[in-house]
Amino acid sequence: MAQTIAADKVTLYDLEQKFQLQQTEDPLFFAEWQGDLPALTEAERHRLARVQAVVANLERRSVLENTVKLAVVAPLLDLSGLFLPPFYVSTEDSVEIEARDESIVVRGRIDILVLMDRLWVLIIESKRAEFSPKVGIPQVLSYMLASPNKNRPLYGLVTNGTDFVFLKLLFQEVPRYGRSRQFILGQDHDLDRVLQILKRLAGIVGQETN
Fold first, then answer.
1. CA 149, CA 147: separation in Å to the nearest integer?
2. pTM of the entire structure?
3. Cβ atoms within 10 Å, residue 190
4. Residue 108, SS3 per DSSP
5. Fewest Cβ atoms closer than 10 Å to its Cβ: which of 69, 75, 84, 193?
6. Cα gap 166→197, rounded to integer Å
7. What is the DSSP letter of 32?
8. Maximum separation of any 2 CA atoms in the chain, in Å
C-alpha cells in the first residue's frame, strides 16, 4: 500500500523512517553544483544586478509576498533556459505554512514548479523573510521521492527569494540525497553562482532527455 504524508506536515524524520531516505556528506555525490560551472555573459550579470536592486527596493517596505517568482525566480529560470524547449513546466498544489513568534503569527505559502519531471523548484512566499529554505527541504524531497522517474538523478532548488539551497536525489539501494551550501542573495556573488548552477543542471537534464 502506498504511504501518504501530508505535504505541509512532512519532516526529514518522516522521510527517513518511511522511505529509508539517507543524506550523504560525500562531496562527490553532488558535484554538479561545484567545480567548473558555465560562464556568465555581461548581459546576464547585468540582469542579475537588476534583480538584486529590485529585491533591495522591495525589502525596504517588507513587501515579499507574491513577488518572489516575479522578481527573482522567473528571471533565473528564464536566463537558464528553463522556459524554452525541450523544457516544460508543471505545478503542484500550493502548501500553506505558518510560524509563530510570541504573539506574532507569520503565514506563507510554498509553491512547487516541476520541470520535465527531473527538476523541482520550490518557492517559499511570505510577507516577511521568516522562512528559511530549510522549511521547504522535506517538502521538495517528498515530491521527488514520489517521482516515477527513478533511473536518473533528480534535482531540486528551494528558495525564499533571498536564500537558495540545491538538492540531488538518487535512487540506489536506498534513496540518497545531497545538498549544496546555502547561497545568499547579495553576498559574495552568490546569485551568480545560483544562475551558473541552474544552467549546469539545465544542461544535464536537457541533454539526457534528448
1. 5
2. 0.85
3. 17
4. strand
5. 84
6. 9
7. G
8. 53
Neighbours of 208 (CB within 10 A): 11
What DSSP line would sit under 175-204, residue for residue?
EEEEE-PPEETTSTTHHHHHHHHHHHHHHH
Q: Quick one: cell of 82?
A: 528553463
Residue listed under C-alpha cell 532527455:
209
| Helix, strand, coil abundance in the chain, percent, nearest 5 | 35, 25, 40
Give pLDDT tens digits along the chain (210 positions).
334 445 556 788 888 988 899 999 998 999 999 988 999 999 999 999 999 998 888 877 765 656 777 889 999 999 999 988 888 887 765 555 454 444 444 454 557 787 888 898 888 765 555 567 887 888 888 888 888 888 999 999 998 888 899 999 999 889 999 999 999 998 989 999 999 999 999 999 988 655
The C-alpha cell at 164 is: 537558495
C-alpha cell at 12: 526529514
Three-state secondary structure call for residue 58 = helix
Q: CA 72 to CA 79: how far, in whole Å?
A: 11
Q: Are 162 and 55 in contact (CB under 8 A)?
A: yes
